[in-house]
Fold this protein.
Amino acid sequence: MKRLWLLPALAILAVVSGAQSARGAYCGAISYQGCSSCGGSVVADGEVVEGGEAAGAVEGAVAPAPSADGSYTVMRNVTETVYDQVEETRYRTRYERYYEDQEVQATRVVPYTEQREVQYTVMVPTYETKTRTINYTVNKPVYETHEKVINYTVKKPVYETKTRTINYTVMKPVYETHEKVINYTVKKPVYETKTRTINYTVMKPVHETRTRTINYTVMKPVYETKTRTINYTVYNTVKEDKVRTENYTVMVPEQYTKTITVKGGHWETVTEEVPGGTMRRTVREPGTWTYDPATCRCVYCPGKCRVECVQCPPKQVCKKVWVPTCEEKEITCTRYRKECRTREIPYTVCKRVPECRTKTCEYTVCKMVPECRTKTCNYTVCKMVPECRTKTCEYKVCTWVCEPRTKVCKYTTCKMVPECRTKTCNYTVCKYVCEPRTKVCKYTTCKMVPECRTKTCEYKVCKMVPECRTKTVCVNKCRTECYTKTIKVAKCRKVCEPYTVTKCVPRTVCKQVPVTVCCPAPACCGATDACGCGSADACCEPACGGKSRGGLLKRLFGGCKKSCCDVAPACGCEVAAPSCGC
């Protein structure tokens, strides 16, 4: 009853132990994992035994002998994937551009020169000489000399020197010094030093280097050289000599004599007396002396002022007078007469003759092929980490304290004291005495007397007479000409072209790898009765410490079966000393 709870555990162990792929020798104490049916082999006595079972499980096979340290070498099957390179032919379709020649009807403009006669009208001037009589009036100056007597009065100044005494008062300054005591208050600054602590935050930069991979595309130019034929037209210049007749006019000089009236004259200098102008001036009458009883002295009273006109003396004036004269003179004149003439002028006419030419041009076509590239960029990231800091500041506080003071001021007072003084002055008195005078003035009077005169004038009258003329004019014209030209027409066609691709084909290969397996020493299986081990069947179980498939059940239900080594230790069957044939 105490061991009933072990039944589920035994069932689980039986399922686990039955899942082994192969069972080894020593009554199932050794098992081989991973030995499938793909040609597994076991090394037994230097020979490879084929099959999935160990040598102890094959009929007639002999179990492999363990090494001195109780380990075996077995061949384990390992599966490995191998890639074979196989060439495969594929087909792709591409579009190919080709050119075909095609004849096209085109139109071009060909210039040519054509001569034609043009009639035009020229206005030819015709001159005609005419005569007319002109009556005109000339004002002729007539001069007369006159005399007149002018009576005028002249004021003649008479000067007299006099003396007088003047009493006057002068204010004389007198200075006096005084003293005064002034009380005042002064504010005196008192300074006091104080300390305070300021907390502030500083942003400290922390730099961090990072790396990123940038994929970018570069357009790589691929150049291709092509050839094309260009038809073009060249205009050759052909010169042709011609002669044209031109009518022209020549002005021929012609001399003739005529009589003309020339107005002449000369300048004469004339001296005449011009009366002087009138001048206004202010004249003061003589003053009087009056006794003043208040000041006990005589006071001078000036006379009244009056304005009078004074005639200035005459003056001599020189002037130039033009005296006209008339003279008749015979002169030689030149006039121009028109004369028509003819001349021949050679000229050259240039013609443009078209010539068709062909040239082959090579041109390069550039195609931009995208190419992917990768670059690694290192960049730095800056983070501002706040850091708290503290500093101590000292500052001064100023307090104003009142302090009384006293000072003595000196000041000066000025008083003006009157002082009487006397001075003697000399002065001049001017008196004007009237004096009559007389003068004779000569003056000239000019009168303009009209005089009638007659003169004959010749003048020319110009008339424009129309005249028809003819000239040859070259006119440039253009005509349209049709011609056939060959052009290249681009077309596309589909082309299927083969190309070879190398691809990797996976293949599974199973190969055997030698593996060394460590196992415990088996019991004395097959020992003879001479060792006292009993029958051979009883000795086929491993020792108590062996890992067999039924060892755990026997320990749970029947205890550990004693081996032959425990029964007859005199035999010397030990694990470390397999001298008994273990």
In short: The first helix runs from residue 7 to 18. The beta strands are 41-44, 47-50, 71-274, 278-284, 288-292, 297-301, 305-311, 315-518. Residues 18-63, 523-554, 556-582 have pLDDT under 50 and may be disordered. The CA atoms of residues 244 and 345 lie 5 Å apart.
